[in-house]
Amino acid sequence: MGICYSTEVVRSTDDDGAPPEVGAGTTRRILIKRYKDPFGRVVKEEIIHLDGDADDDFPDFPELNIGPKPKPRLEPRPQLRLQPAEPQPQPKPQPRRQLHKIQGPAWDDKKLRPQRGRTGSTISRDSGIVDEADDGLLKWKEKEKLAPKPPEAPEQEETQPRDDLADEDDLGVTNYKRMKSQILAMGPGALYSDPDFPARPASLFYSQQNIDPRIVWKRPQEIMGVTQPRLLVDGISRDDVIQGMLGDCWFLVSLAAICRDSALMEKVVPRDQYMWQEGEGEGSYVGMFHFKFWRYGKWVDTIVDDMLPTMAGQQPMYCRSSDPNEFWSALVEKAYAKLRGSYEALNGGQAIDALEDLTGGMAESYDLKKAPGNLYQIMRRAFKKRAFFTTSKKTTQALTQHGVTAQGLVGGHAYSITSVHIVHSNFGDFPLVRIRNPWGDGTEWTGDWSDSSPLWNRVPQHERDRIGFTDKDDGEFWMDFKDFCQHFTEVTICTIGPDFDADAIADVDREWHQANIKGFWEKGTSAGGCRNNIKAYATNPQFALRILEPDEWDPEIDPPEDKGKCKVVVALMQEHRRSQRHLGVRNLQIGVHVYKAGKDPHERLQQKYFMYHRDVASSGSYINLREVFLRANLEPGEYVIVPSTFGAEEQGSFLIRIFTEKNIEVKPLRNQFNMYSYNCYVQDKW
Length: 686
Known about the structure:
Jelly Rolls
């Protein structure tokens, strides 16, 4: 007898992932799985302590596997009426760890770092933003002319539920060239000020408007110590991404991970953008910059001004570069914060989401304790095939007061994986990984193969040069792969394209097709929840999938069971949840299932069908990740895709991405309960 169950995440302490000088804490989360019988009694309960770089949407990591196991056809069975596990209450965060309060430390003149043993003031609610002092810097307020607000898109007919998609203009998405030409037409000295993400407390925090009176918004040329501000200095590198006072290590490690791909970075950070006293004519500095992110099926252009929050006019409070004159990383972080509504909305998150937003690819997280024996070989091959990696560590070991272990690792924190190499030494070969702490300082691993490890003395200099070994306090270090699996919790792998066979390598060397579907779960009509209530489950959105032909089969490469079948990847993503965190919105528990079509493939599957048939593929247990997906080997024919939430009457919008090697046909199946239109289309090879 099958049972639907939910996965609930309980967050017991606040986790900002920020460097210790700004009060970083540690996190302990509890993952609870409760199984209930048909009478609603709890028959089994699993409690798992998880710690890592995540917010309250911490996932249950899947194991690596190749395709789903075949499921037998079920006989008629009684309908189950189960209830999901009740969410556990979340304790209130301790005041000393709230982002909107900067406790005590007085700030050093040279570094944005508290001086031990000194105290400062807490934040004043009525202070607002401090006007700039007469410090001899450029008086931009005296010469600045406010650029006009971008024209809003005309109101369109309501063919979808009202909150299916947020207005793109509200997200800062507009025409950069048109905006810049309007500012240039205003004459010399006109500088852009973003009306949708202004230099105000609301752009910093959504929970409180009380800010420290020392927080001052400055343009790059006005920041102390900046002599010649530039967007880029000597190109883009991972050293340009250093975490500040915000707990967004999950985003910054993802940004640092993709820095090695110049083509991708040129897409995220468009060139030909100029800063103060740089460029002429159409390339003149106007205080406006734009960056691109993949957002729910398409790349969007996000415009921001270059006003950055600083502490008393010193270096930026948040992300910064190792070069004080370089500002691309700080502005990319600001643009991403604008899409999410505020800087505070970036506090705590999943690297799996940031990697997809920066690449448009597909990302998976795997538990290192359940990893296959050939994981290192998988990572080596994937690294060479344009895959990107991040990792995180839970807090099971004894920590110092700053959340750092005796080995120099930070608990509840995310890291980038920047290289995977086998090093050849005088006493053998060793599988190593290079890892980077986004703090960008000397907080590094101190065990074997660390920067100061004597093991490097047995490695020839030419070998050290080959793998790029350096001995610097820059947050980057090498580890033996066994130590890596022992001390870290999970690894996230992002591929640029679909991974049909779960080997962490995008199958981009063959032709493949993608179909996108935008839809909505609407209360009272199409939010039926899971199969615990078959009648309600039948009202969920349904989409017909027609597989026209099998994949090409090579007897020398492909297993015999794949002959005559088509590899399919179906990804379900819930939209616009993080940008509504200020309203208390959290990720829904979602899942996607594929069924064989009924007698008439053009008709929806009804309650009776679900009582007698089981899915042919599913994403597994319902979970509160932003995106879940399934892999399947299906024979050509007619199928039905059913996306759903675990609980009924839970409203939200979603995006379904379907990847296949051969062309397919997709269309929505409607009934009297959900007659609104879906955006459903198939595109050519990515």
